[in-house]
Amino acid sequence: MDMEVCNPSSPPSKQRILSQKIDSEGPYRLLYCSSKGDKSGVIQELDKGVEPNLGDYDKRTALHLASCEGHTEVISLLLGKGADVNSTDRWGRTPLSDARSGKHEQICEILEAHGGIDPTGLDSQTPFYEIDSSEVDMEESKLIGEGAYGEVYLVKWRGTEVAAKNHSFFHLIN
């Protein structure tokens, strides 16, 4: 399946959090298309009745993902369709927190104009729970989950077992 193009081939399923493979054809297609800046894909999913505040396993919404990636048109569309400008993910971050971390000034202005707040304050300039991959022992890592936006591993960090997403760096999952 080509993950760069959002082509629907089945109707959305009931809202539920998946810990399996990426679901680019169900309601999680809204999240995927939002993260890629695919405005027409986002419109298609919203027109199917997918809730604009649908969250992934980290409680990140389409607005979080579009804000993080700098997709202004998608953000305006989601806000117009009732997306919660102050939804919080599992780390207490809002779409504005993500836009600030990504240094997306125009998006920050849009979100603030819609009442967006950043409960992390100035700390949003530095990602939360980021750890240096050199501190993670991957030799005995164990895949413990997969979701729409990454794999989660049980790894050792400074001698302690933690759950971490695998990226070019790691984010601790609390």
UniProtKB/TrEMBL annotation:
<dbReference type="InterPro" id="IPR017441">
    <property type="entry name" value="Protein_kinase_ATP_BS"/>
</dbReference>
<dbReference type="GO" id="GO:0005524">
    <property type="term" value="F:ATP binding"/>
</dbReference>
<feature type="repeat" description="ANK">
    <location>
        <begin position="58"/>
        <end position="90"/>
    </location>
</feature>
<keyword id="KW-0040">ANK repeat</keyword>
<protein>
    <recommendedName>
        <fullName>Integrin-linked protein kinase family</fullName>
    </recommendedName>
</protein>
<keyword id="KW-0547">Nucleotide-binding</keyword>
<dbReference type="InterPro" id="IPR011009">
    <property type="entry name" value="Kinase-like_dom_sf"/>
</dbReference>
<dbReference type="InterPro" id="IPR002110">
    <property type="entry name" value="Ankyrin_rpt"/>
</dbReference>
<keyword id="KW-0067">ATP-binding</keyword>
<feature type="binding site">
    <location>
        <position position="165"/>
    </location>
    <ligand>
        <name>ATP</name>
    </ligand>
</feature>
<dbReference type="InterPro" id="IPR036770">
    <property type="entry name" value="Ankyrin_rpt-contain_sf"/>
</dbReference>
<keyword id="KW-0677">Repeat</keyword>
<dbReference type="Pfam" id="PF12796">
    <property type="entry name" value="Ank_2"/>
</dbReference>
